[in-house]
Amino acid sequence: MCTNSPTEAPEVLSLSELKVNLPQDVYSHLSQQYDGNGGTDDGSHPEKILECMKISPGETCCRVNLLQSSVEKVIDALHTHLSRSTNGDDDVQYTVRKHETIRDVVTIRSCSTSNKRDDLFYCNVPPPPIADASHAFSSWENRRKKGWPMNHRAVIVDRFCGEAVLRGAHVFVKGILGADAGIQEGEEIAVYAHLSSNKPIPRGLLQENYTGKCVFLGMGKSICKRSDYFAQSSGIGVTMTRLAGPSLPPLNGVLVGKIMLQNLPSAIVVHALNPQRGEVILDMCSAPGGKTSHVASLIGNDGLVIACDKGRKKMTQAREFFLSMGATCIIPIATDSTKLLLDENANRNRLSPRQLVEAAAANVQSKDEQQLLKIKGFYPDSFDSILLDPPCSALGLRPKLQVEIQSADELQKHAEYQKQFVKCAVPLLKSGGIMTYSTCTINASENEKIVRFILTEFPCMMLVPISDNLPGLPALPGFGLSDEERKMIRRFDPSDRDIDSMGFFIAKFQKM
Predict the structure, then answer these.
(1) DSSP for 5-70, written as a single string
(2) What is residue 231's three-state secondary structure?
(3) Euclidean distance between CA atoms 367 and 335, whole angstroms
(4) How far apart are CA 317 and CA 35, in angstroms?
(5) CA–CA separation, 104 vs 110, rounded Å?
(6) Partners of 96 in the beta sheet?
(7) Is 440 a catalytic residue?
(8) Do 287 and 310 form a contact (C-beta atoms < 8 A)?
(9) How far is CA 205 from CA 190, 211, 229, 433, in A?
(10) Where in 264-375 does DSSP place strands (E)?
């Protein structure tokens, strides 16, 4: 039974009205990195980033799995799929093209022939034309006062589902929290995202009893009646037809095993690493596995890729993903990568990664161990290349309707944790080997300062240039890096309209 009082009015926002807020000390911390220490802004730059954060990039990036397809075949298949999925809607057309410089990336951009799709950004209820149910709520006098649409029934989804919707996904039933009574299959409905608050929202809530804060995401068509939303455990509940943000194509279940939906910088990381055939490569923080599978794609399964992450469930799921991508060269391991370095004096017969994998495979005791081999760690100088993309504050993700970071101290804890990965990675890398360090945050303490830490604490590590054909901005000034060093780095700003991507950071090192 719902405990909310139906007399309380919810706060129903348009996407344009939504303000993504940061704790004051976090905002000040980020402001200082732009206007202090020789920075490039007046301190208002975080405000520009927050305004862009709530909106998806205008392009969908598909990284082609070269193990199971080609760029040309994927472009043809996407053209066919998108022409069918628009169902004759002349307002939605998509351009599909190969990325100008990244050879295995295909981009999709909508080119709507009218402005009615963009209008939803400024609406908190659906605009005309009205649906057939124009008098559905004529007897509910308070509905208009509460801010709900009078011409459409509505559903409320959780924030994570809402962010996925803004990226082009349909609404899965597991993400639906509440809905109007009487929703029928095929009905056009309004979709809202609940913004987390201290009040938990019981799943199955009637819309009239909702008293929280939510944002209008767009319009969709119900796949089933209301009761099925909460009776089913999987499947799509609402197919989206119009979005409040950029019109992006739903590609869930499309070309499975042949493409990977990734933000552009995530695909650039592996090209910066530039893995070679025959190499032994380590991905220290692999799950969910997108970058690891990219490595396998670029080397054509010719090599050994060790994929690590702490969570066993996550790595079991990653293993299934690798198999679906045909990435047979990847060995997934559930382990804490900060403890991956073995004492070289503990075993006189130092085994290579290949030998350790073979030994673990020969000693499998159960089906569980067969799926994820039991390997405690590796010896120094074991890997030709290392991809290090450690857990971070994720302040670069788009779209993001709310920020979880609670304090500037939390940002610093992320940076200290990242250093633990670095301290393990450097000894594991062979002399002459390549390591990339990347994050999906805009926080310089986790980016430029970590680069400075690596260069200071490990004189054997040298910052090297990333290929000129890979896009991105230089590192921020004022954090101990020379102008020459800053130009070697790729930083992606969420408010950069030229690239229009998520916030991201990539640095490349070679061990001397």
Answers:
(1) -TTSPPEEE-TTT------HHHHHHHHHHHHSTT-SSSS-HHHHHHHHHTS--SEEEEEE-TTT--
(2) helix
(3) 18
(4) 43
(5) 20
(6) 108
(7) yes
(8) no
(9) 16, 11, 11, 56
(10) 280-283, 304-309, 330-334
Q: How many CB atoms lie within 10 A of CB 510?
A: 15
Instruction: Give residues with Cβ within 8 angstroms of 36, minimum separation 6.
Output: 478
Tokens of 295: 């490595």
Provide the residue-wise pLDDT of the chain in tens; the chain has 512 residues. Answer: 333 445 578 999 999 999 999 999 999 999 999 875 444 556 688 999 999 999 999 999 999 999 999 999 999 999 999 987 754 445 678 999 999 999 999 999 987 644 444 589 999 988 765 445 455 666 566 788 888 988 899 999 999 999 999 999 999 999 999 999 999 999 999 999 999 777 788 999 999 899 999 999 999 999 999 999 999 989 999 999 999 999 999 998 999 999 999 999 999 999 999 999 999 999 999 999 999 999 999 999 999 999 999 999 999 999 999 999 999 999 999 999 999 999 877 666 789 999 999 999 998 877 776 789 999 999 999 999 999 999 999 999 999 999 999 999 999 999 999 999 999 999 999 999 999 999 999 999 999 999 999 999 999 999 999 999 999 999 999 999 999 999 999 999 999 989 999 999 999 999 99
Q: What are phi and psi of 470, to 5 degrees?
A: -95, 125
* Cβ atoms of 49 and 493 closer than 8 Å: yes
Q: Which two tokens stand for residue 498?
A: 């030229």
Judged by DSSP in three states, 184 sits in: coil
Q: Establish how many alpha carbons lie within 13 A of residue 297's alpha carbon, considering only the half-sphere containing its beta carbon.
A: 28
388 Cβ neighbours under 8 A, 6+ residues apart: 284, 285, 421, 422, 425, 435, 436, 437, 438
Catalytic residue chosen out of the listed positions 52, 62, 161, 440? 440
189/219 Cα distance (integer angstroms): 6
- 420: burial class by Cβ within 10 Å (0-12, 13-18, 19+)? middle
DSSP assignment string, 284-312? SS-TT-HHHHHHHHHTTT-SEEEEEES-H
- Whole-number Cα distances in Å, 10 to 144, 156, 194, 210, 353: 11, 12, 10, 6, 57
429 close to 383: Cβ distance less than 8 angstroms: yes
